[in-house]
Amino acid sequence: MRQGPHQVAQKSTTARPGCFSISASKSLSDTGTACDIIIYLRAGASSAPLWPAYVVRPAAHTTAMWRLPVLTNLDSMSKPTSTTTPPRIAHIGIAVQSLDGALPFYRDVLGLPVIPIDDADGAHIAALAAGDALVELLEPATPGSPIDTFIERRGPGIHHVCFATPDLDAALARCRAAGVRLIDDVPRIGAEGKRIAFVHPSATGGVLVELTEMESAR
Helices (H) and strands (E) in the chain — how many of each? Predict the structure, then answer.
């Protein structure tokens, strides 16, 4: 089966979705001389480095078509590596009008164990373990508190998602460098005495994101 040049590029990258660029070792001549094409892949953001992943070697060439190429995998070549522990979900905060009304579903129906936790930020908190993360039910403790205001405007529901990062200061520095709008420019003390900082929903697809530090980080 014969394929066009654009089809060759598509086939050579379907196993590795993501951004990519193609550079040829030499141009195709008018006589149809075949050339090697090196395909470079980039993982993640546009600023991430490229590395050669495949060499496409057409077996023959006509003026209109290339044959199905031979792919030589160059995965053994050096690639960007990272030894940094990736962030993980620490908890999901759910705004509720009443802990007494919301808790039975999570505790009794789903069977999530209750974890003792201190109240914070004008909210009474009931925490339940869900694997390695927590579900935190947030009931307004005082009128005009952040949770009270949230419920008045939007009703009960998911209030925020918290990610634990190995280095909170470094994470905030990356946010600032990327132009991400922060609610807390510097970390502050949150529940259980942990350092936290909030990212504005305008930078996260409408989701309020809390960043905290992994317990082993300090």
Answer: 4, 14
List of residues 6+ apart from 166 with CB closer than 8 A: 84, 85, 87, 213, 214, 216, 217
Q: Tell which wins on pLDDT, 90 or 30.
A: 90
Cβ-Cβ contacts under 8 Å for 142 (sequence gap 6 or more): 122, 148
Predicted pLDDT of residue 79: 37
Taking the C-alpha atoms of residue 132 and residue 138, their distance in angstroms, rounded to an integer, is 19
In whole angstroms, give the CA distance from residue 107 to residue 164: 24
Phi-psi region of 32 (alpha: psi -120 to 50; beta: other; left: phi over 0): left
Angstrom CA distances, 108 to 38, 104, 105, 112, 128, stand at 58, 5, 6, 7, 11
Q: Which two tokens stand for residue 198?
A: 């909030």
Is the predicted pLDDT of residue 213 greater than 80, yes or no?
Answer: yes
Q: How far apart are CA 176 and CA 158, in angstroms?
A: 26
Confidence (pLDDT) at 84: 75
CA quadruple 4, 8, 11, 14: dihedral sign = negative
Of 32, 34, 41, the closest CA to residue 13 belongs to 41
Quote the tokens at residue 217: 């980080």
pLDDT tens string 66-125? 343 333 443 433 333 456 789 999 999 999 999 999 999 999 999 999 999 999 889 999
